[in-house]
Amino acid sequence: MRNWFKAKRPQLGLTGLVLGALLLLIVMTLSTIPVAAAPQSQDEPPTDETCLACHQQEGMTAQIGGQPLPITIDPEKFSTSVHGTEEVACVDCHTNITGFPHPEVTASSPRDFSLELYPTCQECHLEQYEKTLDSVHQRALAAGNNNAAVCTDCHNPHTQTRLTDKTTGELLLGARLVVPQTCAKCHSTIYETYRQSVHGAALTEEGNQYVPTCIDCHGVHDIGDPTSNSFRNSTPYLCANCHTNETLMKQFGISTNVLNTYVADFHGTTVKMFEENYPDQPTNKPVCTDCHGVHDIMRPDNPEAGIAFKKNLLVKCQQCHPDATTASFTDSWMSHYEPSPQVFPLVFFVNLFYKIFIPAVLGGMILFVLTDVYRRFIMRRAPAKGESHE
Hints:
By secondary structure, this protein is mainly alpha-helical. Helix content is 51%, strand content 2%.
């Protein structure tokens, strides 16, 4: 037996070396496992790295009410998002997540899950959140329309980049390009109409960021009801925000007298009175959008719809004046031109005549009255004929 053991000793030594090497390899392998994937203490909230260890996997979904909810997060997009750059952690928004397994989801559908979660935004964005409470979207949501837009429908919290200047709060130029596409998620038909308009084509096709986008007319978080009387009556002043800006209009060769010429005629005078005194009362007088359109605004010289052409303008006039049957009817309106010797010379010279004639008549009458008073005063002070001064 002793001789057998001595004979086998070299083989046992070799086996021990192999087993030792395997054990060392296992220890080294375990030591290289990333800390992010290691279990965390249940007393500490999970870090972003811990969350992304699972949620960066492609095609991850969660079933809520029998419907799939995508839960894959792109680490690179999140790191470059405004939340990522500002070091907003996952658990700052998902406050109920304290570890794994996660708490049971009580929402009945993915949409209900979004509606339950979005009020978390007010923790950081209270001012914007409070503005949404008076918006047309929030009123629709309160009325039972669960498809009405909430914060996360417009701002994807995992990919949203910065939209405003950190110092001034002004919308960044690059951000203006994505505004229409954001609204198009719900308002796709309107977006297609806008995209073909003079404003939309300049923005989406030419990249001109100085033309109005959706939020310039409708607002951002406190979007009002565009079908209300007050919105309609204030339309001229809404358009004037851009169209009376000399610096802006100079780029496009557009006159800034559009508001002054509008409120000076019989249409604008009435609307101005309603807007100032009865903003919620309807008026049948036309505002900018009645003639120019809303989302389908075209260049005035567009042959098919531009109102620089009498046949196109007549169609607009007939909305209020159905008895207008000839193109000459449009000659009664001077558009947004101010009378001059070159444009509407008859109106210009009639105005000039009255500007001279009326002051001359009034001045002559005042002179006549003054001379009459002076004469009466002199006559009263003069002695009667035949009276003695002694």
